[in-house]
Automatic annotation (TrEMBL):
<dbReference type="Pfam" id="PF01266">
    <property type="entry name" value="DAO"/>
</dbReference>
<keyword id="KW-0560">Oxidoreductase</keyword>
<feature type="domain" description="FAD dependent oxidoreductase">
    <location>
        <begin position="29"/>
        <end position="467"/>
    </location>
</feature>
<dbReference type="InterPro" id="IPR036188">
    <property type="entry name" value="FAD/NAD-bd_sf"/>
</dbReference>
<keyword id="KW-0285">Flavoprotein</keyword>
<comment type="similarity">
    <text>Belongs to the L2HGDH family.</text>
</comment>
<keyword id="KW-0274">FAD</keyword>
<protein>
    <recommendedName>
        <fullName>L-2-hydroxyglutarate dehydrogenase, mitochondrial</fullName>
        <ecNumber>1.1.99.2</ecNumber>
    </recommendedName>
</protein>
<dbReference type="InterPro" id="IPR006076">
    <property type="entry name" value="FAD-dep_OxRdtase"/>
</dbReference>
């Protein structure tokens, strides 16, 4: 793992001043940037919750989810995922500024998101399967899964959830032989396993199609594809817009300029509330607004998958995860280790591994695109990792499959990092007020670091943004 000398990317989207400020002529209540699974979930919830308001979702590609959201393991995480963080805290208690991961947004939104995901999948017949997952342990790793199990018992149901089970995260400790009864191909070296019945898989494309359909069929929702946001400016001043209720001539929000297709000119639009769910590019837009020294760095960690066609997995019917590393650099919060996943067709895949990218050409915020091509270089290490628990998997059966990139807010040495929901207000940029707690309306909410379990959490992220953050803000209550 090339873990050293990874630098963050701090390029600003509009640094070269290509697009000048323009006065908007139309207005939208909610504008969501990014049509990945998270942006779609937020737009769907806004359109459902506020049918009389307008919600636009702007996506630069011709369809949804073409960046990270179509390159994941498609696993509905039970929340056990988040226990790896707890484990980390116990190991490095002394680390400064560390979150208490059981209270982290990743933990809460994963558990709540899992519940919402299964509900939606069942209600809308979105292909999914609750396969269950095994975290398998060799002798030296037995204490690790025992601690995970212990921690799982103590996790509480997060806000909004409707407890279905006494335990928010059911797990069982089983022996190696019991694990081999479930999965006969497992190595004899596996002496124990942690069974998570709530883990599953979902067809993420069908999920995104389902969300798209609800947005387009809603009264106020609209999807705008092949359109990219190229500039954002805070707006605070007199009303520009004709549909203002009489007597209120002020208007606040965000002037969002978009470019559609290969058109030269940008179109300005005033968004009263802006939600930035632009994934890997998310900080690029924000960085164009904030002073140089406050810019947010972003780190990119690639995960590669290998497909497998060969012997020694013929019986596999559950997801199989090794125990993640416990070192600072290869810990489970960075990557879960090269695990076995199955897709809806029952096809076996290994991955994702972890490999940090170095944005050498910092002027190109989309430098990572060229790293989305999987190659053979990762296969040897992946094979080594996999044969630790599935000993008869052959190297020849592995083929590079696809890659995804994790948007990370901290680098390889950075420790645990939670999801971040950053709120900015037009005032904070116009110089009218700084640090004031008044006029907390018309926010721009930036969703940052939405790496795994972002797919699982997507519907809960939408609930959190719409029901907790926006409905708390003045002027965004139900009307
Ligand atoms: C290898 C890997 C495996 C993973 N496995 C899992 C898993 O098994 N389970 C799980 O729960 N999570 C998993 N995740 C995490 C999950 O995939 C992500 O958290 C989730 O897909 C993020 O969705 P998003 O909508 O935030 O981002 P994205 O899918 O990246 O969507 C952002 C969108 O914004 C658009 N955009 C960007 N800039 C602009 C602009 N200026 N104008 C217009 N549009 C713009 C992009 O085109 C993109 O479509 C995995 C992630 C990776 C990388
Ligand atoms: C792997 O293959 C060897 C040799 O064919 C066999 O003895 C062994 O039982 C196999 N292991 C598993 C876990 O299937
Ligand atoms: C969107 O969110 C990202 C965080 O990932 C942030 O950096 C970016 O600047 C945000 N967009 C806007 C318009 O602020
Ligand atoms: C798997 O490999 C076998 C022979 O090694 C081949 O016949 C078969 O077509 C392959 N299947 C796929 C899906 O590639
Ligand atoms: C906050 O908003 C109120 C009315 O909505 C306005 O009168 C006041 O000037 C604003 N405060 C600041 C500091 O801009």
């Amino acid at each position: 793992m090339a873990a050293t000398h990874v630098r963050g990317l701090k390029a600003a989207l509009n640094a070269n001043g290509k697009y000048r400020y323009k006065t908007p002529e139309s207005v939208v209540d909610y504008l969501v940037i990014g049509g990945g699974v998270v942006g779609l979930a937020v737009a769907q919830r806004l359109a459902q919750r506020f049918p009389s308001k307008s919600t636009y979702l702007v996506e630069r590609h011709e369809g949804p989810g073409q960046e990270t959201s179509s390159r994941s393991s498609e696993v509905i995480h039970s929340g056990m995922y988040c226990l790896y963080y707890l484990e980390y805290r116990d190991i490095e208690r002394s680390l400064e500024g560390l979150y208490y991961p059981e209270d982290s947004l990743k933990t809460k939104l994963c558990i709540r998101g899992r519940q919402l995901m299964y509900e939606r999948c069942e209600r809308h017949r979105i292909p999914h399967r609750k396969l269950g997952k095994l975290v398998v342990a060799q002798d030296s790793q037995r204490p690790y899964i025992e601690r995970l199990h212990d921690k799982a018992q103590r996790l509480k149901w997060p806000p909004h959830s409707a407890p279905l089970d006494r335990r928010a995260l059911p797990t069982n400790l089983i022996t190696g032989d019991e694990a081999r009864e479930l999965e006969p191909d497992l190595s004899k070296k596996i002496v124990a396993a942690l069974w998570s019945p709530e883990t599953g898989i979902v067809d993420s494309h069908s999920l995104m199609e389902n969300l798209e359909k609800e947005i387009t069929e809603s009264e106020g929702g609209e999807l705008v594809y092949s359109t990219r946001v190229v500039r954002v400016d805070p707006y605070y001043g007199s009303s520009l817009v004709r549909d203002q209720p009489s007597g209120d001539a002020r208007e606040e929000g965000w002037v969002v300029q978009t470019v559609t297709g290969d058109q030269e000119e940008s179109d300005p639009l005033l968004a009263r509330t802006l939600i930035n769910a632009s994934g890997l590019s998310a900080n690029v837009i924000l960085n164009s607004l904030v002073p140089q020294d406050q810019r947010i760095a972003m780190y990119y960690a690639r995960g590669s998958y290998a497909s497998y066609n060969g012997s020694a997995v013929s019986h596999v019917s559950h997801l199989i995860y090794p125990c993640p590393g416990t070192g600072r650099v290869e810990h489970g919060f960075q990557s879960l280790g090269t695990h076995l996943t199955l897709d809806m067709q029952g096809k076996v895949r290994f991955g994702p591994d972890l490999d940090w990218l170095n944005p050498l050409d910092e002027s190109n915020p989309d430098f990572w695109e060229k790293h989305l091509i999987p190659d053979e270089t990762r296969l040897r290490l992946m094979h080594e990792a996999v044969t630790e628990y599935l000993p008869n998997v052959t190297f020849e059966g592995l083929q590079p499959d696809y890659c995804g990139i994790r948007p990370k807010l901290v680098g390889p040495q950075g420790g645990f990092q939670d999801f971040v929901f950053r709120k900015d207000y037009p005032h904070s940029f116009t110089g009218a007020v700084t640090g004031s707690s008044t006029n907390r309306t018309n926010p721009m909410i930036s969703l940052m670091g939405i790496e795994s379990p972002g797919l699982t959490s997507s519907l809960a992220i939408a609930e959190h943004v719409v029901d907790d953050i926006l409905c708390d803000a003045e002027g965004h209550r139900d009307s």
